[in-house]
Automatic annotation (TrEMBL):
Gene3D superfamilies: SGNH hydrolase. InterPro entries: GDSL, GDSL_esterase/lipase, SGNH_hydro_sf, SGNH_plant_lipase-like. Pfam families: Lipase_GDSL (PF00657). It is found in: Secreted. This is GDSL esterase/lipase. It comes from Rhododendron simsii. Its main location: secreted. It comes from the Eukaryota. One of its GO terms (molecular function) is hydrolase activity, acting on ester bonds. CDD domains: SGNH_plant_lipase_like (cd01837). One of its GO terms (biological process) is lipid catabolic process. PANTHER family: GDSL ESTERASE_LIPASE, GDSL-LIKE LIPASE/ACYLHYDROLASE-RELATED. The lineage of its organism: Eukaryota, Viridiplantae, Streptophyta, Embryophyta, Tracheophyta.
Length: 263
């Protein structure tokens, strides 16, 4: 499993780079075996749980110097907190691996794999590997919705900005297909208007989400779903692209909390 994304799936890459977006201290990791690891949560990430379901180990962070040799055969995690689809997204946090840089980092891994197996074996290996993508949140909360730091909201309306993101996204996905990956899962955006980052702006009544932010995300999620449909139309032989309905999952949790247990 190869993981590309942001803090939702970062499992320690930012520990090794010059960034203020780090989580290698408590209370992060308070429920994780071994304590804080660089995951931006109290325990396991979505990727950890996915790996358990698939029977594969959680891939190690690319930036860890120990991620080499046999360790890369089970996959690698390239995700980086504050990263976005656009290179400039999250720059106020310092260093981070943007989508394009994560693709470059994958090519570094690929060079190592070429030295470890034959061409036919590598082709088969890559075709069986799952590539997981979790991107886009920072392009909104750490770019478009910060007009004092980024000009994007003055340059693009929400629909045009979503198209800009999707065009960049599509190019990188196709580039990874061209080097051999065949199984892709692309997660949509969650309701960002409901996260603490946005609630703290005071733009919504207590207990409510920031509606205009959630409405803004519709263009991106609908476009990503359409992109997945287009990629599955036969122009990429042997590939499978899956859309992850993150918004729907989190929306159901917010609207029906009792169905998911009591605090």
């Amino acid at each position: 499993m190869y993981v590309f994304g942001d803090s939702i799936v970062d499992d320690g890459n930012n520990n090794f780079i010059n960034s203020i977006a780090k989580s290698n201290y408590y209370p992060y990791g308070c429920d994780f075996a071994g304590g804080p690891s660089g995951r931006f949560c109290n325990g396991k990430t979505f990727v950890d749980f996915l790996g358990e379901k698939l029977g594969t180990p959680s891939p190690p962070p690319f930036a860890d110097p120990a991620t080499t040799g046999a360790r890369i055969l089970g996959g690698v995690n390239y995700a980086s907190a504050a990263a976005g689809i656009l290179d400039e997204t999250g720059r106020h946090y310092g260093d981070r691996y943007s989508l394009s840089q994560q693709v470059i980092n994958f090519e570094t891994t690929l060079s190592q794999l070429r030295m470890m197996m034959s061409g036919d074996a590598l082709t088969q290996y890559l075709s069986r590997s799952l590539a997981v993508f979790v991107f886009g949140s920072n392009d909104y909360i750490n770019n478009y919705l910060l007009p004092s730091m980024y000009p994007s909201s003055y340059t693009y309306n929400p629909s045009d900005f979503a198209n800009l993101l999707l065009n960049h996204y599509a190019r990188q996905i196709v580039a990874l297909y061209s080097v051999g990956l065949r199984k892709f899962m692309l997660a949509g955006l969650p309701p960002l208007g409901c996260i603490p980052n946005q609630l703290a702006t005071g733009q919504a009544p207590p207990g409510r989400c920031v509606d205009y932010v959630n409405q803004m995300l519709g263009s991106f999620n609908e476009g990503l779903r359409s992109l997945v449909t287009m990629l599955n139309n036969g122009t990429h032989p042997g590939a499978m692209f899956v859309y992850g309905n993150t918004y729907g999952v989190f929306g159901d949790i917010l609207n029906n909390p009792a169905a998911y247990g009591t605090p």
